[in-house]
Amino acid sequence: MLSLRNTFRQRGRLLLTLGTLAIGGAGFIVAMNVSASMNSTVDSKFDAQKYDVQFTFSQPYPEQELADQAKAVQGVERIETWGSALAVRQFDNGTESNKFSLIAPPESTDLMTALPLVDGRWLQPGDGNALVINHALLALQPDLKVGETVTLTIAGKQSKWQLVGIVQEILAPPFAYVTKEALNRNLGLDGIASALVIVGNDRSVERVTEMTRGLESQFASAGLDVASTMRLTDARKMIEDHLLLLASFLMIMSILVLLVGGLGLASTMSINVMERTREIGVLRAIGASARSILNIIVSEGAIIGALAWILALIISLPISRFVSTTFGMTFFEAPLQFAVSIPGILGWLAISIGFSALASLYPAWSATQFTVRQILAYE
Questions:
Q1: Is 216 part of a structural domain of the chain?
Q2: Which among 70, 80, 156, 257 has the fewest CB atoms less than 10 Å away?
Q3: Which pTM value belongs to this model?
């Protein structure tokens, strides 16, 4: 009770100390929340892609041939044949857009589910000429709206598609998604595929890498020209490494502010102890032990740390949402999926109380080093 009363004795000084510590704490929690939002955004992308490796071929091949060659490689458990193509959009004024890639999973696929939606919906069986684009393509063609009819030229053939959805793909090139059935129907193809996605029976990084090498050798020996290979583990690591740099920068900035707050708290506690020197002497004179004095002052610092945590938590949540949105729009042209870092919040509680108690430890220890006579004689 004495520690609690002493905490609010100098309210102006307390508010300055709380403000500095709360700003540092809010910065820490915001950095952790933005990091959690990044992880949530990455997870939502790769949770939708349930395969291990994707092969894209330079030209279409019979589906059965692709399937037979893939099944001949050890470690392959499941395969799906997909379509892919390059497309350009035809504008009403007769001009056309730059080329972008079409990815065409089959209607019945269970190796890819809906990516995080920005607007509209994902592809559904029986959609016909339905089109879903990612936010990178939307950034290049901002006039596109869900529900519009879009004219595309694919392999020299024009066709009309209805835009049904816009999805978010962090750090991805401009992509559009259609079903393989719709793509083949518009191109006049049947039983043809130009991409293959594969699931291994052992999904560890080493086994997937080994399986990928085997598939590349198998396709080369069969005369199938592979244009690109993408392992999801590699793509995910590249994105996470990129985001780690940004999250680390935010964390370093918050730690610097926290250190400034800690120095301010240490100064505040030193001044408080100095102002209460004779009071401490009276406590010692009536029987208070050095340990009791130490506990009173350190507890006062811990109370300040707890109050700073509450204040930091209150101001960090709206700032975290704003920073996550701004951060995503600045670096990825789409807002991050906001997430709260529970470990970050609880971690800051422990850091705030512990750091505040440590900052009070030296002033408290100093107060116990004088004799009762010296303290009572202090002017």
A1: no
A2: 156
A3: 0.72
